[in-house]
Amino acid sequence: MKLGFIGFGPQAKENIIPCCQLISGVEIAGICEKDAHRRRQAQERFRLDCGYSDYRQMIDDLHPDAVIAACYPDDHYEIARFCLDRSIPVFVEKPPAPSSRHLEELITLARRKRTTTGVGMNFRFAAVSTRLKALASGQLSSISLRHYCNKPTDPFWNYASTLRSFLHAQTIHSLDFLIDLCGPVDELAVFGGDEASVIDMTVMVTFANGQHASLITANTSPHFVFDFDAVCSDGRHISSSALWHMGVTEVGKVYANEEEKRWSEHWAPSPLDSGYQRSGYAGQMAEFLAAVEEGRESRISFASVAETYRCLDQIESQVAGRRYIPKPAMHSLTREAV
Amino acid sequence: MKLGFIGFGPQAKENIIPCCQLISGVEIAGICEKDAHRRRQAQERFRLDCGYSDYRQMIDDLHPDAVIAACYPDDHYEIARFCLDRSIPVFVEKPPAPSSRHLEELITLARRKRTTTGVGMNFRFAAVSTRLKALASGQLSSISLRHYCNKPTDPFWNYASTLRSFLHAQTIHSLDFLIDLCGPVDELAVFGGDEASVIDMTVMVTFANGQHASLITANTSPHFVFDFDAVCSDGRHISSSALWHMGVTEVGKVYANEEEKRWSEHWAPSPLDSGYQRSGYAGQMAEFLAAVEEGRESRISFASVAETYRCLDQIESQVAGRRYIPKPAMHSLTREAV
Amino acid sequence: MKLGFIGFGPQAKENIIPCCQLISGVEIAGICEKDAHRRRQAQERFRLDCGYSDYRQMIDDLHPDAVIAACYPDDHYEIARFCLDRSIPVFVEKPPAPSSRHLEELITLARRKRTTTGVGMNFRFAAVSTRLKALASGQLSSISLRHYCNKPTDPFWNYASTLRSFLHAQTIHSLDFLIDLCGPVDELAVFGGDEASVIDMTVMVTFANGQHASLITANTSPHFVFDFDAVCSDGRHISSSALWHMGVTEVGKVYANEEEKRWSEHWAPSPLDSGYQRSGYAGQMAEFLAAVEEGRESRISFASVAETYRCLDQIESQVAGRRYIPKPAMHSLTREAV
Amino acid sequence: MKLGFIGFGPQAKENIIPCCQLISGVEIAGICEKDAHRRRQAQERFRLDCGYSDYRQMIDDLHPDAVIAACYPDDHYEIARFCLDRSIPVFVEKPPAPSSRHLEELITLARRKRTTTGVGMNFRFAAVSTRLKALASGQLSSISLRHYCNKPTDPFWNYASTLRSFLHAQTIHSLDFLIDLCGPVDELAVFGGDEASVIDMTVMVTFANGQHASLITANTSPHFVFDFDAVCSDGRHISSSALWHMGVTEVGKVYANEEEKRWSEHWAPSPLDSGYQRSGYAGQMAEFLAAVEEGRESRISFASVAETYRCLDQIESQVAGRRYIPKPAMHSLTREAV
Predict the structure, then answer these.
(1) Which of D256, D266, D268 lies closest to B135 in CB terms?
(2) What is the DSSP string of D241-273?
(3) CB–CB contacts below 8 A, A to B
(4) Per mean pLDDT, which range of B53-62, C57-66, D20-29, D326-335 is the poorest?
(5) Where is coiled-coil annotated (chains A, B, C, D) (predicted)?
(6) Is CATH 3.40.50.150 the right assignment for the domain spanning B2-121+281-303?
(7) Please, where in chain B does CATH 3.30.360.10 lie?
(8) What is the tens place of the pLDDT at every residue in C202-222?
């Protein structure tokens, strides 16, 4: 399968392209990159005859079986439109589009063209996500997810606000992880918010199936943190830390030394575990390329992130709404409800 | 100081009385216990001449300098009234009273009698709580607290509902811990709730000072869990697990190997740490007895838990309110706010 | 049971006496302490009519059922002799005597007088020790124990050398833990040793039953560390850290998610665990006092640490021997054996 | 750079080849594999025109700039000889040769031909190894390394014994890690050994520079474990677990909350860390290919593992020697030394 890549930044270089290289039959046909230095890097590393700075030309020249882009959100939107117009399967890093409106347009186009699409939602495929789904199956009651990071603290990716930059760069992952686990969202309430460059908020998500989640997120933490605790109604408690550790413990189960209390089962990958399975990058690329090959919609299609975008919008509007109102409407009403 | 104890159940036997024994000058003058077997146990263990089954008689006989009770909430209320009427300092295990109304009555009485009171809020004095307060000082933005346990799943302590049993047995601790840290509560919203014997809820707390907290709690977990993550606006992240581990990490700090990223500082007590400092029981009893000696109000007075009770009532009424309403008022209004 | 205590230093105050107070029927009849300030402290804390500075007088006055001493090793020896001469059961903190010769004398005397003795070997009773014995039962192949601490770095307790101070203050615990687990020692070889005030050595212990252990110990580590990994011949691996965590994993066992690999079972005490069970102090005092009551030899009798002393002597003589020999005899011979 | 690969088993497929693909300018010119199914797999995955089953033919056809082999030890020896005879740089997975004699021959040949060689000693390049070297620099006193695994339990790779299979498959890594850290070995003593298919031994290593190490290893543990504790003479203690966590703590350092005791600094890679840096595979391939390009000896040359082989032989002979001697010579001499 001939692949054309657009963008040779760190994410493409370290995760997306290496994962594609691990998949059988993949040919890195061309890499398009506007920056001359990076373009030369890409050419040398993959011994490509020719480097492109215009993706349109690359696509016209190479006729790739699929296009894979890791750029800015507005580029993603344009590239996706260009590819879908030509019925070329396209995968874009997150965020796939700068707004819900743009995303909806792409979803409609992809449906009309019956063309495979994909978005870089690697957390859905992380080793701990797969295990969580199996272990919580049908019994999940609630989940608390801590997603801390240290950026953005300024607007980037051509977004007008730090808040939207944060939502589309960070929250998109944790929210999508929750929606992938629990399904469509019924209600959403934001606590905390942003102040100057500091974002610190808890998003309470109630799902249509009755489950609820607390998404606790901030841009003030030195490292990337992605930890969760899931509570099952049958007395199973599943926790995870850093996509690396998992713990499971059950009411009434008999553990080592014939004891029931204070024991749990823990999982961790091998010290020698390398590659991209654990972080979900391998699974995400494998799913997209398999979908291209089988001519079907991928599990990470543009359509599959519509609900995530809808919720990101809700968060943004709740926070933005609160920013100008001394006492938020929601809260004073809450008080009456009490 | 002559102490009269009421109730010789596990909490008195394993935590309250041993902590008092560690304090200089304390005399275990008498132990009152209705159960004949336990009464004999108490007499033998402390080589007491006489065992009491009626606390009134014990108090009249021994004229203790303070009374310490670990019974049921309605007993606590009665005992406290009896002691306060006689201006005898009194400490009761949590919950100090079966309802806010009862508690208010005791607070008024204690004020009128200018008598020292105390409640068993040991988490305020836990080793990790003390460190959290020092480390987050003035900069706390939000805190997420996971408080999981496996009981109650049925009404107990003469309460009419499992929910109130759970709130007064478990949530009282975690909520009080948050209020002790952040001060008076401005708003409170409950997500999830109870269904049959399963309680699984997240309580979002907004404090008057603008900080917010997520209290994530359930009765479905095999073990007692008490873990938190605190986010500071200056880029400090403080986490803790099991009242045993603490982690602190700061944006921009230079750690070992001259690195800034992916390092943090961790604290754990000595393997040989024993006694009651870590869990806060020692601190709680020391504070009460010091207050008695100095004739002052204790930091764990009945009045000091009034805000906690007010919030427990709010949680109860929100959950109870939702139980009969298909779509909760708060939520539909939230939607409008969006 | 009337107990007379000798020495009111931190170990007596924080661990030994509190553990005794928790045991039914124990009376703290008297505390002897040479230091006037500490003696007053002890008197006040336990409301004792009279404070003793001479243990002989205290014993003659009070006729205690047992004597419990936490002083210096040469005091322990003298006190034990005094008590055993009078057939009074006696417990001493470790080390029970300043040398093997002194210990042997005490063992002989105790046998002749058929009097109960005890030594403060709390690690034998730690929560993880008990579980290790149950889990490794009959299948232990080897154990690696890391025992790090930060003192002594100078001679203390009237010992002539830092090395013996270290061996009798620290190594006595870890070596006794291993001997309690594996039985009599066949061979012992020391690697590393002492240089100036730094002690850093690995003691290889081969037991009569064929098991072997590596005891890795140093006085250069900021904290007290007591971690182990035990390997069983049936494919069970048991690890422990800080007397607080335990991990067990077995070849071929099916864990959560129907997986065999990379899972293990973990144990940790409750966050609220307090008191002295976990560290073994409670078990040690309970065993001694039970033995006194039942008129039998205790499991922590003077005789029970004879093997430990013999091995401490071997370590000392190997290290001391090497200190003056450029190329240690053992090693050059080892080379020939190869 | 044109690379010819020999062997397309899991190690080549999952680690060696992907790491090479990540390096700039690398061309996977050909893959030789005897097994027809795997050969087809390799051809498809890398879209190679032609699959080779004879490495001689591949090398003659393609004239690769370097050859990279991941086969059996006797294959490695033959391939290396073939390549070195033709002055073609060659990298082989460990073990590079079935015996020290074979390895010496290759070292001599490589020197004579002035040709770059490499061996797959990835642990030298692991993220924790690099940090350990920086942190312990010049102050290391001793290190304890636990290296547990679950195979081999039978002879493999054409070796005659399980012991040598284990030494050349597993111990080679941990021993090489220690020698890379501490330099040439002065003395070596083995405790424990093999019995039926169970190997459980502790190898005490004394280095020429006076440092010592305990290598604790067994084939009875369900998972791969690679944990260490390093003690520095200046009061720094460095620990690591699973090539994933690192802890550093220092005597006298002031940590968070202005405390000196019970704190340490911890390192862990990002949850999203993927690729081969952490496990050292990336560093190993980068070093070899850089050495090829620069026409110099690599840091992982055949010569660089000579000391490791010498020590593996010593271990084998000590264990084998003991197998027939009821009471090992070394031990009885040790006793006299005492």
Answers:
(1) D256
(2) ETTTEEEEEETT--BGGGB-SSEEEEE---TT-
(3) 188
(4) D326-335
(5) none
(6) no
(7) 123-270+310-320
(8) 999 999 999 999 999 999 999
Residue D334 pLDDT grade (very low, low, confident, very high; cuts 50, 70, 90): very low
CATH number for region C123-276+310-320: 3.30.360.10
Domain with CATH 3.30.360.10 in chain A: 123-269+310-320
C2-122+281-302, CATH topology level = Rossmann fold (3.40.50)
pLDDT tens, residue by residue, B217-263: 999 999 999 999 999 999 999 999 999 999 999 999 999 999 999 99
* D333 in reach of chain C (CB within 8 A): yes
Low-confidence ranges of chain A (pLDDT < 70): 323-338
In chain C, ranges of CATH 3.30.360.10 domains: 123-276+310-320
Q: State the span(s) of chain C assigned CATH 3.40.50.720.
A: 2-122+281-302
Sort C158 into a burial class: Cβ within 10 Å, 0-12 / 13-18 / 19+: exposed
* B33, pLDDT greater than 70: yes
Residues of D in contact with B256 (CB under 8 A): 131, 135, 248, 265, 267
| DSSP string for residues in C35-81 | SHHHHHHHHHHHT-S--BS-HHHHHHHH--SEEEE-S-HHHHHHHHH
CB contact under 8 A, C24 and B14: no
Give burial (CB, 10 Å; 0-12/13-18/19+) of D209. exposed
Q: Are D146 and D174 in contact (CB under 8 A)?
A: no
According to DSSP H, which parts of B239-327 are helical? 281-294, 306-323
Nearest Cβ partner for B14 among C23, C44, C275: C275
The CATH 3.30.360.10 domain(s) of chain D lie at: 123-268+310-320
Please, what CATH class does the domain formed by A123-269+310-320 belong to? Answer: alpha beta
ipTM of the complex: 0.93
Output the pLDDT for position C323. Answer: 64
Domain B123-270+310-320 has CATH 3.30.360.10: yes
CB-based contact, A133 to chain C, within 8 Å: no
Answer yes or no: are the C-beta atoms of C236 and B263 closer than 8 Å. no
Contact A197, A226 (CB under 8 A): no
Question: What residues of chain C lie within 8 A of the CB of B226, using their CB?
Answer: 271
Q: What is the pLDDT of residues A252-288, one digit of tens each?
A: 999 999 999 999 999 999 999 877 999 999 999 999 9
Dmax over CA atoms of chain D, in Å, equals 69
List chain C residues with CB under 8 Å of A278: none
Work out the pLDDT band at D323, boundaries 50, 70, 90.
low
Residue C294: how many other CB atoms lie within 10 Å: 10
The CATH architecture one would assign to domain D123-268+310-320 is 2-Layer Sandwich (3.30)
Name the residue among A127, A252, A226 with its Cα closest to residue C259.
A127
Residue D33 CB partners (closer than 8 Å, separation 6+): D6, D7, D8, D39, D42, D51, D52, D53
Q: Which of C23, C243, C245, C272 to mutate to test the interface with B (most CBs of B within 10 A)?
A: C272
CATH 3.40.50.720 domain range(s) in chain A: 2-122+281-301
The alpha carbon of residue A143 is apart from the nearest alpha carbon of chain B, in Å, by: 9
User: In A, which residues are within 8 Å of B260 by CB distance?
Assistant: 222
Query: What pLDDT score was predicted for residue C334?
Result: 36
Q: Which of residues 192-211 of C touch D (CB under 8 A)?
A: 192, 195, 198, 200-202, 204, 206
- Domain spanning A2-122+281-301: which superfamily? NAD(P)-binding Rossmann-like Domain (3.40.50.720)
Quick check: helix, strand or coil at residue B157?
A: coil
What is the per-residue pLDDT across C218-267, written as a single tens digit (0 to 9) for each? 999 999 999 999 999 999 999 999 999 999 999 999 999 999 999 999 99
